[in-house]
Amino acid sequence: MTIWKKYKIFIVIILIVIAGAAVPNYFAVTTTPSLNKRIFFIIKSKQIEKLKTGDYVMFSLLKSKPESDLPPKLVRMIKDDGEDSQIKKIGCAAGEELKNIGNEFYCKNKLIAKAKEYSLGGERLKKFEFSGKIPEGNMFLVGDHVDSYDSRYFGFIKAKDIIATLYPLL
């Protein structure tokens, strides 16, 4: 067996990470378990009218929401990290029907997320409350992980606050 066959996936991942480090404006790597995908190709496009449910987007939570609306521990973590870009998936887009039943969120009658009462650190989480058609220019963002801090807690993100569209590679 050749080295290529034996280590093909590992070599591809290393090459993508090296390319991402060499060309950071085109690749993003997420290290949190918030999303199932880890490596993304970045398209810095302002074609917000083309954004749709299922698209991955990059945005700045601190620029989109007042700090007073966010948990202080999260604000400190983002500021200490020095990187204020988050990546999430559009769970429900403008004009689509979002239903909030109990702790569950549905888009077009499909379960997209379930809110928790408490964070991993034991802090009580304030759940976003909304049922109805998502207003134009807004989107409901979700992560894949149960502990993702997303629109279940901070509400809608405005499409104008999207920095880039991302395409998952791995």
What is the CA–CA distance across the termini? Answer: 25 Å
* SSE string: HEEEHHEEEEEEHEE
Sketch the major β-sheet.
7 strands, antiparallel
Uncertain segments of ≥5 residues (pLDDT<50)?
Answer: none
CATH architecture: Ribbon
Question: What name does CATH use for the topology?
Answer: Umud Fragment, subunit A
The CATH C-level class name: Mainly Beta
Concise synopsis of the structure shown:
This protein has helices at 3-22, 61-64, 72-81, 151-154, and strands spanning 27-29, 39-43, 56-59, 86-93, 97-101, 104-107, 110-114, 132-133, 138-142, 157-158, 162-168. With 170 residues, the protein is an alpha+beta fold.
Q: How would you describe the overall organization of this protein?
A:
It is built from 4 helices and 11 strands, in the order H-E-E-E-H-H-E-E-E-E-E-E-H-E-E. It has helices spanning 3-22, 61-64, 72-81, 151-154, and strands spanning 27-29, 39-43, 56-59, 86-93, 97-101, 104-107, 110-114, 132-133, 138-142, 157-158, 162-168. The protein starts with a helix and ends with a strand. It is 22% helix and 29% strand. It has 170 residues and is of the alpha+beta class.
Supply database-style keywords.
170 residues; 4 helices; Umud Fragment, subunit A; 7-stranded antiparallel β-sheet; globular; 11 strands; 29% strand; 4-stranded antiparallel β-sheet; alpha+beta
Q: What is the secondary structure topology, with strand pairs?
A:
Layout: H1 3-22, E1 27-29, E2 39-43, E3 56-59, H2 61-64, H3 72-81, E4 86-93, E5 97-101, E6 104-107, E7 110-114, E8 132-133, E9 138-142, H4 151-154, E10 157-158, E11 162-168
Antiparallel strand pairs: 1-2, 2-11, 3-4, 3-11, 4-9, 5-6, 5-8, 6-7, 9-10
